[in-house]
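Today's session is about reading a structure prediction critically. Students often jump straight to the picture, but the first step is always the sequence itself: look for stretches that repeat, for charged clusters, for runs of hydrophobic residues. Only then move on to the predicted structure, which in these notes is written as discrete structure tokens rather than atom positions. Here is the chain we will use throughout the hour.
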Amino acid sequence: MANRSKSIWPTRTKNEREVQAYRRQQNDDNFSKANKINGGTENNVVTLDSSGDIKDSGVAISSVKLREENKVYVSADYNVTENDEIVYVKCSTVDITVTLPASSDRTFIVQKIDSTSNKVIVVGQTGETINSDSSFEILWQYESIEPTKVNKAFTGTDWLI
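Below is the predicted structure for this chain, in token form.
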């Protein structure tokens, strides 16, 4: 009899597979609801095409916000809102500036999702600093930062990464 080694991947029970399928369906439903909330119909489909451009029913757009997820996909300059959690940036043709909100007690995630040499430039409001600099540049695909607003009196900066 051959010596069979155990798989390093855990096997899923029928119940776990059903839960996973249910969660996928819920995510699809949430996407449809978010799209409808943003003025679209449930038949509109937001996709990334083969070059990574964001499209809504085949038409190129500069940003998509999925409100239930608090994730934003942008391909143009963007001002982060208090409701945002993750900002995915595609800067395939030009550098893109992401501006952090003026008053916040939250941490945000900003991530570059394309592989071009263009950069994501993260800035605070006028006069604010990030790690004591006026801006922070994200250069590499999938590189991300998590700026957190801090008390400048203690740190000498407005945002820390």
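Discussion point for the tutorial: The first strand starts at residue 46 and ends at 48.
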